[in-house]
Amino acid sequence: MKVKRFGIKSCLAGVFLASAVILLFFSLSISKLPGNTEREAGKVSRAVSDRMHILDDYIGSALTADRRVWAGHNNVPSDMVIYRYIEDTLQSWSNQFPVRNDDIASRIVFPRLSKPGESINSPLAEVTQEPSFANYGQKWYLVKSESLGSRKVIAGLEIVDSMSEDSPNGVNSKLGLGRGYMIVPLSESSGSAVTFDGKPVFKIMSSPVSGQPAATHSTMIWLAIICFITASLLHLAEKKSMKRLLLVLGGLMAVIAATYFWGENMKNSSRLFSPTVYADGQLFNSLGTVLITVLLIILCIGCTFVTRNDIFRRILKTRRVKLSLWIY
User: Rg of the Cα trace of the chain?
Assistant: First the structure.
């Protein structure tokens, strides 16, 4: 009875393949874990409270400043906006809200004939002393107003910027929210409420890749891909035959195709697969798709070159050698 001996390449290929399976299993387990939104909500609540207290200091300074003096401060943080009105007329400001109309003066409004459903009132006119979560353009703010005589200050703390490239979820980095979460209005049925002065202002929900940060999930996926590619190359190097070449190429193409579709799902949370960084058509719609396509081409050429001796041997055994060589 013959006992089949396994060489070191076969053993290493088995180890890397097992590692790839284990890493893939753990990455999928992490992506399915429910996020601890209660913990994140408590952390963000404290951060919001700290930022709003700083904003209150600037509001008080703007209110008490002489009405003939420009009340805008050059040192106001970039995530805060302060507008000071004198008798409903904007007199000074620090940073800006992304709104077209900042006139809060009350007047009789006649609907437009061309756009009867469109209001010409400024959204800032609806801001009250009670902090509220408001959407202006691509940004969400926690806004409030304070009045002193003929002076009125409308201020806001930026919470979310949907066009921001600084963080995948667009949340103000000073709030310390984890990458696996997103901020939504209180109208959402699920999520944990963030409170300010004991009152809920918005909610925190888990992102599609939830629980642990998306970076952990992504790192495990990439390590699993590397381990599988290494196992495939070792398996081919152990026996450089046409049969193994076809098996390895089939496995590599399947993994690269799966990586492509995984990247499509990650384009909102990964700059590598984001079309805002690079895009060239529907197929190569991100830098990541270009890189994995180039990787597949290099692997196919390299694996074919490694098994060239067996390929030539099979070609020479065929009757139509010239035709086979031309096809090859």
Answer: 30
